[in-house]
Each structure stands twice: as C-alpha cells, then as structure tokens.
C-alpha cells in the first residue's frame, strides 16, 4: 500500500529479505527506485510499473501524512487511512496507511502487495507500489480525483447519477472483477459503493485496495452485517461467491439510490414493489426493461445459496447489451467538468522569497539564501561524539568551500563542494540542497535543481524555501501550473509559520 527503509535498502537483514523475495519473483532489483528519474517506468496505458517506495518518498508526497491530505478514513472495524499525495514526477497518488500491527510479517505483506500489483486494467484504480519500513505498512495506488460512487449516489449536491451512467458503473465493475478473477485474484474484500471511484475523465474504476484485506488476520467485511454474505456470517471466510453477493448489494444501491439491506429489497421484489425500489430522484427517466433486467441480476446475486449465484463473466455479458450511451463521455453523464487544472493564482501576499520566485529572479533568490544562512537547519542532525572524525572535518570544510563559492557566485565550484558534503551522508542539510538547487538553475540544469528542492522537502517537510525552489525549477521545466501550485503551498506554509510566531 519485504522491505526497506529506502528502495535502495542498506540494512543487511532487509537486503537479505529483499534478495529472497527477488528469487521468488516478488521484487524487482534493489536499484529500481520509483523516483530515480523525472518519470517512473510505466506499464501499458501510462500506469507506472509496481515498485517499492521509501517512507521518505511517501512522507514528502503527503506533506508528512498531513491531516489535510486525508481523503478517506475508517472507524474501528477498518482501522486505516487513505491520503492523497504527489510524487516528485508530479503524479498524484493515493496512499493507504495501515495500523502498525495490521501486518506484523513484512514478507507476507510484500507478497500480497506484489500479487495485487501485477494487475493492470483500465477498469481498476491500479496498485503502483508499497512500502514497509519498521512497523509501517503502506499501499500506493493511482489517485482518482472525482469521489466515490457512494458520494455521487447518496450525498450528491447538484445532480444524481443518470440511469445510463449507473448501467456503465455496473458494467465497469463487473469487467474489473472478471479480470481480477481471470488473473487468479477472485476475492474482493468488502465490495461496496465506497470502493467505486471516478477518475479524471469521470470513468468509474474499482479500487485495488479491496483486493487486500485490512490486515493479515483481519475480517474481510467492515460494513453493517445486514449487507454481509450469509455464508461469511457462518464461516468468517470470503469466497468468490461472496463477492457476487456483494456485487448484488451494489446493484441495489444503483437501482434505489439508497443503501437498502438486501433482505428488505428482496421483500419488496417478492411483493412486486419495483416502483418503490427505484430511485425517485431519477424522476422516471429510465427504461423499465433495463431496470427489470438489472433487478433480475441483483436477485440472482443475492441468492442465499452461493452455488445459485451467477459468475462475474455472466454478469458482465448480461450488462453489456444494456449500455445505451456508449458514445457519451462519463464526465458529461456524471455532470462534472473534465479535470483540466488551471494555474492557480496565489491567494496570499508573498514574502520577499515568494515574490522573487514568482518573478523567477534568480539573483534576488541568491541574495536571500546568502542572508538566510543555515538558520532553518537547526534540529536536522543529531551526531554522536564518535561521528566527529576526520571525515566529518573534511565534510564541513567542503561545505565551507561551497558557501564561499556560493557567496562569490562561482556556482559550478559551489556545486562540486556541496556535492562532496552531501555524498558523505553523515549530515543532512536542507539549506545545502536549496543552495545547490539554485546553483543548478543558474547553470541551466532544472531537472537537477528540482531533485535537490525535493530532497530539501524530504529533510524538512514544512520548510517553505524547499517548495519555493521547486516552483522555480518547475517553471524552468515549463510545468507552469505545477509551479503555481508549489508557490501557493509555500506561501501557505509561510503563513502558518508566521501565525505560530516563527519567522519565514
């Protein structure tokens, strides 16, 4: 959502574990870090290939797992959080963070994640990576920006989902689940309307997170028992037929626009109260023949005996002929604007640093960084007495030479000396990365500048300068909407610091 503190893994036990997994076909080579270049290796359709992520990568992407980045959270029955985040290559991601004890065995977690990560389908919100670091267990998936089926069905603000779109949701779900089954993963845990997500085009996709349990030994269903397959209540085990039953409950959601317990819905159907079952917000704008067909499918899925339920392949085959608006884009039927991000205008007054970055005034940025010196590095290093060696002295001398060259505007020499300091790795300094980032910009190397600014953010996730330097590098790379995004984030962080009584 087994492993290492970073994708390069320097811990001997973790290297051994990674080697074992590689021999079993579980892991890629250790040097395939997902963020090692501006764009990660991608599979068909532009989806990144499955990778290990380091915890520092995901902290940087989610602003240190900020509460502001939470997009989904569950209660005691499903104790996990989902955050949105943004990687160095600007790709949005969803990060599911498990509780520390959910998966005590990192190898088992990695094996299951790699099993799900091999799937790639246009109907899935695909899994693109995972992370194990100490007690942390995380899954990383494609981010879907247009909310869940539950939101659009039960909590809509402007308009309900039209009938043809509901039929599209049902078909896409069936196709996704049939694909998973054909690839040897027929079990989907706790299938419900919250698991159906809408992508940037408004197309419905099934969340990959349901292909893994909430924990190694955890229950597969966290919803109300009234919606749980009867055999699961008897055995506590989810089966492929249990998934079919849950699919039937989602068909009921699509028909009624409400979350109706299956027993109640079946009583209505037996009494032929079909009109009462249908969502009144559709205002009669649906085909009775199509509705009758979907009701029939739902009834079959909800049979008490698992063997009497249809297969997912049969359900997809039955839903396909019901599609009547195949040529209409999903975002139009869903009543949303297609996701085209406009460069946001800064909403806050900019500091001198922010103003210099917005104007791309590298000379002014240089003057500010010189005056700032290293005041924001406080607390980033805790070194033992034993670490104050000759090597440490040489490293600090390299930084001093870099600082001198930086002040004198000898930027290539500054790069060389700062690189010596950074490569030793005994100390970390966001200021050195920010200074080297500016040096790279002045030497017309914006890619390297962006990497340094991102590293400064990794070290100090709430440091506005790191975000400001990213904004300049992104603008140099002609990624202007992302640059404006970063400028806004930096200004917001400065505002928080000022309110907290700290200088910017």
UniProtKB/TrEMBL annotation:
Domain (Protein kinase): residue spans on this chain: 68-323
Membrane topology, record value: Lipid-anchor
Give the E.C. number(s): 2.7.11.1
Keywords in alphabetical order, please.
ATP-binding, Brassinosteroid signaling pathway, Cell membrane, Kinase, Lipoprotein, Membrane, Myristate, Nucleotide-binding, Serine/threonine-protein kinase, Transferase
The reactions it catalyses are: L-seryl-[protein] + ATP = O-phospho-L-seryl-[protein] + ADP + H(+); L-threonyl-[protein] + ATP = O-phospho-L-threonyl-[protein] + ADP + H(+)
Q: Which residue ranges are recorded for the region named Disordered?
A: 1-41
The record's subcellular locations are:
Cell membrane
Database matches in SUPFAM superfamilies: Protein kinase-like (PK-like), TPR-like
**Mind telling me which InterPro entries this protein's record contains?**
BSK, Kinase-like_dom_sf, Prot_kinase_dom, Ser-Thr/Tyr_kinase_cat_dom, TPR-like_helical_dom_sf, TPR_BSK1_C
Biological process according to GO? brassinosteroid mediated signaling pathway
What does the sequence similarity comment in the record state about its family? Belongs to the protein kinase superfamily. Ser/Thr protein kinase family.
Protein name (Swiss-Prot/TrEMBL)? non-specific serine/threonine protein kinase
| Species of origin | Rhododendron griersonianum
Q: From which lineage does this chain's organism come?
A: Eukaryota, Viridiplantae, Streptophyta, Embryophyta, Tracheophyta
């Amino acid at each position: 959502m087994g492993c290492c503190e970073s994708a390069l893994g320097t811990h001997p036990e973790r290297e051994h574990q990674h080697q074992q997994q590689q021999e079993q076909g579980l892991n890629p080579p250790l040097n395939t870090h997902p963020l090692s270049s501006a764009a990660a290796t991608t599979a068909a359709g532009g989806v990144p290939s499955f990778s290990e992520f380091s915890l520092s990568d995901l902290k940087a992407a989610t602003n240190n797992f900020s509460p502001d980045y939470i997009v989904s959270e569950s209660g005691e029955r499903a104790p996990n959080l989902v955050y949105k985040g943004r990687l160095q290559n600007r790709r949005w991601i969803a990060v599911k963070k498990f509780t520390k004890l959910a998966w005590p065995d990192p190898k088992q977690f990695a094996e299951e994640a790699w099993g799900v990560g091999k799937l790639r389908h246009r109907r899935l919100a695909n899994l693109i990576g995972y992370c194990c670091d100490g007690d942390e267990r995380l899954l990383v998936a494609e981010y879907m920006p247009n909310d869940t089926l539950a939101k659009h069905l039960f909590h809509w603000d402007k308009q309900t989902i039209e009938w043809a779109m509901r039929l599209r949701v049902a078909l896409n779900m069936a196709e996704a689940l049939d694909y998973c089954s054909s690839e040897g993963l027929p079990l989907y845990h706790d299938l419900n309307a919250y698991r159906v997500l809408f992508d940037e085009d408004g197309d419905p996709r099934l969340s990959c997170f349901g292909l893994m349990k909430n924990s190694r030994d955890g229950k597969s269903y966290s919803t109300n028992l009234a919606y749980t397959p009867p055999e699961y209540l008897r055995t506590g085990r989810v089966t492929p037929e249990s998934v079919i039953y849950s699919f039937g409950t989602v068909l009921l959601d699509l028909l009624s626009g409400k979350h109706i317990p299956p027993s109640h819905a079946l009583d209505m159907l037996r009494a032929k109260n079909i009109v009462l079952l249908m969502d009144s917000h559709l205002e009669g704008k649906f085909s009775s023949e199509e509705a009758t067909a979907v009701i029939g499918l739902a009834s079959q899925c909800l049979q008490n005996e698992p063997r009497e339920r249809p297969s997912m392949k049969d359900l997809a085959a039955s839903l396909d002929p019901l599609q009547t608006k195949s040529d209409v884009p999903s975002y139009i039927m869903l009543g949303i604007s297609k996701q085209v991000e406009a460069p946001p205008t800064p909403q806050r007054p900019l500091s001198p640093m922010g103003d210099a970055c917005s104007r791309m005034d590298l000379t002014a940025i240089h003057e500010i960084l010189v005056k700032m010196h290293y005041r924001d590095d406080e607390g980033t290093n805790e070194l033992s007495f034993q670490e104050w060696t000759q090597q440490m002295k040489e490293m600090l001398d390299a930084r001093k030479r870099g600082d001198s060259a930086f002040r004198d505007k000898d930027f290539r020499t500054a790069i060389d000396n700062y690189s010596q300091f950074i490569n030793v790795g005994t100390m970390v300094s966001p200021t050195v990365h920010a200074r080297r980032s500016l040096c790279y910009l002045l030497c017309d190397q914006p890619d390297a500048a962006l990497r340094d600014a991102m590293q400064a953010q990794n070290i100090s996730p709430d440091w506005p300068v790191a975000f400001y330097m990213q904004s300049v590098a992104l603008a140099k790379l002609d990624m202007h909407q992302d640059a404006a995004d970063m400028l806004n984030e930096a200004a917001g962080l400065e505002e928080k610091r000022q309110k907290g009584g700290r200088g910017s």
